[in-house]
Design a protein that fits this description.
11% strand; alpha+beta; 395 residues; 14 helices; rod-shaped
Amino acid sequence: MAPPQRTDDTPPNVIDTLYQAALGPTGAPHYLPRFEIFETLGRTRTGWNWAAALCTLGWLLYRRLWLPALVYACTVEGLVLLWFAALRPWLQPPLPIEAGLGLALLVLSCALPGLWGDALVYTDIRKRTLRALDAAPSVAQAHTALAQVAPTLPRLYALAGLYVALGAALLGAALWVPRPSHEVTTSVAHAGTATVLPRTPASAPAPEPLTVASASVAAASDAPPPPPSAEVPPLPEPPPAAAPVAPHAPAVATAAPAAHAAEPAGSKAHRPAAKPPAKATESATATKTSAKKTAGKPAQASSAPAKAPPDTEPAPLQAKRYYITVGVFADDANARKVDKQLRQAKIPTQVQTVGTNKGEYTRVRAGPFRKASEARAAARRIRAMGLEAVVFQQR
């Protein structure tokens, strides 16, 4: 970025005075030494400007650099919108890569203005100074014209207040956490649900759950006792033929204490009625004993056929072993006949029942064999018997 050439014979100290008037009340100690270096070199070069790096947009507005401020804002906002609206949904990068790209954009948006901020101010100030010298009839009037459009302290304070307010708003939004409501949330972990219950006063007792058993006991206790009567005759003793109802005898025996508890203390007419449950218990015990003896006899009688060995399930096929499929038979008797024929020929066999849509079939295999040569030799022997033989290897 080459600076414009001077077209007048104004002394350098006057130029420095005009530069200071154009810079305003702030920044002269920082910018004037760098302007002198640019004047000596005849060109601009990179430096470092902390205000331009950390508060780029505000610094551009304070220095009245309207076009660079517009370009900077459009570039940064355009890149952010392009990333979130198009590139991010399309690429779907992982979180570390996305964080790295965001950090790179932040560094570039701060580093570029910081490196070229002094050169940008020098170019703008020199252009305005030369225009003021060309438009004003004297140096004093040019100085006054430059001072009128120079940055002012009220503008600086307004921009600083705007930055502070924006930073406070962002910090408050980041730290704001919604306060919990005046409700107690009870989570049921096993059920995966949560219920919200209002707070109850400490003095209010918690309601106790009622079960069916407690309800029935309460109903029994609240029931009025039967009126005492001496004219009620004693209950007749149950006949011995009541033995078949032995399964219900424990319930009668269990209910007997409750009947005694419900009777009034002064009632003597109900006392003889307590004896029959005892006899019923004895008859129930005798019935159980006879039932056990009766149940034991069929077991002994049926133990003889149980000694016959049941058909054992065939062993699972061994990996890397060779087998021979002899046939699949709809008649189990034919399958057993072939199995017996192979066993008589000293060939190991396996019989398995296979379920299909058409019913159950019996499959006969020979094996296992360690080597393919052994399986082929056994297949030749089976074919010599007039049977089929298909050799395969279990994987």
